[in-house]
């Protein structure tokens, strides 16, 4: 048996998230179906984490055990020929037997993209949230810095979270702006969050709160008070799923995509 690790990108617009669900089409279901067509083995994949319905991934990582002797350099092409066009496996490697895509992960980066200005980009509507009015970028950057460090993120996770602890560490939080698109009179804003782990809806609630800061509805300094309160009702709304992307997963020496 070999332990194979793969890195996959997907557009989540047509899927009910990553994890298999009864009577719903998911990324995991598509991957396992392709693996069965390839190996005739009933394989269950383990991912670095779940993504919700409508959420995308640039660098989702998963692993699985297989008895197949297909050479490792042929796996990506073989998988992609059996996957829908909106799912692409772009790296495969044999990893140690104790490698586990979720438990071995050291940190993850998520990116949230919004288009700020008059018109949306027709060709990116599935991957950008459109905000039609101007936002105060400087205030949003100041607020974003409040999230760096170890905090209890109870205020910034869904009440449906089943995690035993809501303490997480954010190693880096940054905001990048693309140049104005003159014909659209709008520009893209990317928010990157790199952390030890993320709670259910955590990134989307952080972004929803940052948007309120950008709109002038709350001050950047208020973020620290919201964190301290540990009360979901005090944070902003949950941002739309389609702007969110799992950007990268880091594993140290065995990082498949570092």
Describe this protein's structure.
It is an enzyme of class 5 (isomerase). Formation of pseudouridine at positions 38, 39 and 40 in the anticodon stem and loop of transfer RNAs. This protein has helices at residues 27-39, 75-80, 137-145, 202-214, 222-229; strands at residues 2-10, 46-47, 56-66, 87-95, 107-117, 129-131, 149-152, 167-177, 186-195, 244-250. With 258 residues, it is of the alpha+beta class. The protein folds into two domains: 2-104, Alpha-Beta Plaits (2-Layer Sandwich), CATH 3.30.70.580; 107-248, 2-Layer Sandwich (Alpha-Beta Plaits). Strands 1, 2, 3, 4, 5, 6, 7, 8, 9 and 10 form a ten-stranded mixed beta sheet that branches. The two termini are 25 Å apart. Residues 254-258 have low confidence and may be disordered.
What is the number of beta strands?
10
CATH topology of the largest domain: Alpha-Beta Plaits
Instruction: Tell me what portion of residues adopts beta-strand conformation.
Output: 25-35%
| Oligomer state of the chains in this structure | single chain
**Name of the CATH first level of the largest domain:** Alpha Beta
Distance between the terminal alpha carbons, to the nearest Å?
A: 25 Å
Compute the number of structural domains.
2
The main sheet comes to:
10 strands, mixed
**CATH architecture of the largest domain, please?**
2-Layer Sandwich
């Amino acid at each position: 048996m070999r332990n194979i690790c793969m890195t996959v990108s997907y557009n989540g617009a047509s899927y009910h998230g990553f994890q298999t669900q009864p009577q719903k089409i998911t990324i995991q279901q598509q991957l396992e179906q392709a693996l069965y067509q390839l190996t005739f083995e009933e394989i269950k994949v383990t991912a670095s984490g779940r993504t919700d319905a409508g959420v995308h991934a640039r660098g989702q990582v998963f692993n699985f055990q297989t008895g197949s002797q297909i050479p490792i350099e042929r796996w990506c092409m073989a998988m992609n020929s059996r996957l829908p066009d909106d799912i692409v496996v772009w790296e495969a490697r044999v990893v140690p037997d104790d490698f586990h895509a979720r438990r071995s992960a050291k940190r993850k980066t998520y990116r949230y993209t919004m288009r700020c200005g008059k018109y949306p980009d027709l060709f990116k509507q599935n991957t950008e949230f459109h905000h039609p009015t101007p936002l105060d970028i400087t205030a949003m950057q100041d607020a974003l810095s409040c999230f760096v460090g170890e905090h209890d993120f109870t205020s910034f996770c869904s009440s449906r979270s089943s995690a035993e602890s809501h303490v997480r560490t954010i190693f880096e939080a940054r905001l990048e702006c693309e140049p104005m698109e003159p014909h659209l009179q709008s520009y893209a804003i990317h928010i990157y969050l790199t952390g030890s782990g993320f709670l259910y809806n955590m990134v989307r609630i952080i972004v929803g709160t940052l948007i309120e800061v950008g709109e002038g509805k709350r001050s950047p300094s208020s973020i620290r008070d919201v964190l301290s309160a540990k009360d979901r009702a005090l944070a902003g709304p949950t941002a739309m799923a389609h702007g969110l992307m799992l950007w990268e997963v880091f594993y140290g020496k065995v990082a498949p995509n570092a």
